[in-house]
Design a protein that fits this description.
The chain has 179 residues and is an alpha+beta fold. It contains 1 helix and 9 strands; from the N terminus they run αβββββββββ. It has a 4-stranded antiparallel sheet with strand order 4-3-6-9, with no helix packed on it. A 3-stranded antiparallel sheet has the order 1-2-5, with no helix packed on it.
Amino acid sequence: MIEKKIVLFLIITSLVVAGCAQRINDQVPVETSAPDIGIPLDTITTDIEVAYPPLINSANIESAYPIEENDVSYPQGPDFAIDEPVKKDDLVVTGAGPKHVPIMLVDVSEMGRLIGETVISEDGRFTIIIESPLKKSNFIGLQLGDLTGTDFNENDFVYNENYYVRPMIGILFDMVIVQ
């Protein structure tokens, strides 16, 4: 079975290399017609020794990249805030957000380690009492808590220009550095 895979790999590799070599030797005919993309063909350089992909003549730069940006509107999620300053050795973190939303306080500097959690009160304020003192210069942030049994949907909290997205941690609704 492994021998068949090796043979198949060698055949595919040979075909790819042969195709590349043919293109490099300019044996593949250059397409002389193109779909209408708003750029006259006589302004495009097709000589493979000059450039690939084709370069656009500077005389027609208005129709070149960057492509016009689309105006995409995302539903705006609610605002959250951690009260500042947050100081080293603090055992309480307070802030504001939409009422009745479950939240988690995480240590971003420690790969999203859970520090504490609560539900935002009726007045839109929260207080999280934590067990271990906060460390100076660590980033802490708010994340969405467990929505099970609530009327909330995670999609209501997908986008806000104030949100932070951190790889391997997720969306943070607010983030501050411990002083």
